[in-house]
Amino acid sequence: MKDPKEAVIYSRFSPRPDANESESLNVQIERCNAYCTMIGLHVIKVFKDPEVSARTVDLADRPSGAEMLDFIKAYKVKNIVVLRIDRIFRNSDDGHSTMSKLRSMGVSVHLADQGGLSMCSDTAIGQFVLSILLGAAALEPALTAERTSKALRYKSHRNIIVSRVPPFGYERDPNNRGKMRPLESEQKVIRKIVEMTNSNHDPSDIASWLNQRGLVKRTKVWRPSLILEVMERYKSRQEIESNGH
């Protein structure tokens, strides 16, 4: 009979760790091992995913994540131990669907140190708490992205350079290298894009019209996605101006 106390450890390190993601793979594994010793789990394999985002890459699409899922299925391992929920999931859709599959296989997910507490998905309360944590893990980066987007839009409206190359319609201000100024030749193109959009031309038609007249986007031909990008930036500036910022 298969030992129900066999376990695997999964660790992941973010490509751009913040203060809450500073644990190295080895530190995560050390703390997971200590948890396993404390509750009597027998670790038979350790999986490491260095430099992988859990928000944009599902567990089954990560090299070691996929290997681990195949391993526990082949060897009927019943326990996965991670340091925290965000080490294994930050995408709530992936988290909920994968947790459902693991439950159907009789596999429990253990959190060795979630804010100073340990927990497991093998009880109804554990499953409930983990579902809440999955939502929180997905919410945090979404809020960060939202705040970052608002900050970048505000800086762009103030003509502050936010990237190496100013966006279409602008050039670096020679009198202040930290700022940009409107480039009239490209502003004319933007005005034409806005005019055609307001006349119900779709992005494909606008891109074709611009390309046929040689009004290229610097070194690129116009594509529908670039038309949408210009319109999104234009609308953002209009929104900020209308709000009085």
How many domain regions?
2
H/E series:
EHEHEHHEEHEEHHH
Mind describing the biggest β-sheet? 5 strands, mixed
Structural category is alpha/beta
Radius of gyration over C-alpha positions, nearest whole angstrom: 25 Å
The low-pLDDT segments are 17-22
What is the CATH homology-level superfamily of the largest domain?
A: Resolvase, N-terminal catalytic domain
> How much β-strand is present in the residues?
5-15%
> Count the helices. How many?
8
**N-end to C-end Cα span:** 68 Å
Strand order of the largest sheet: 2-1-3-4-5
The count of DSSP E runs of length 2 or more, i.e. the number of strands, is: 7
What fraction, in percent, of the residue positions are helical?
40-55%
At CATH level 2, the architecture of the largest domain is: 3-Layer(aba) Sandwich
User: What's the CATH class label of the largest domain?
Assistant: Alpha Beta
The coarse silhouette is: elongated
What kind of assembly state do the chains in view correspond to?
Answer: single chain
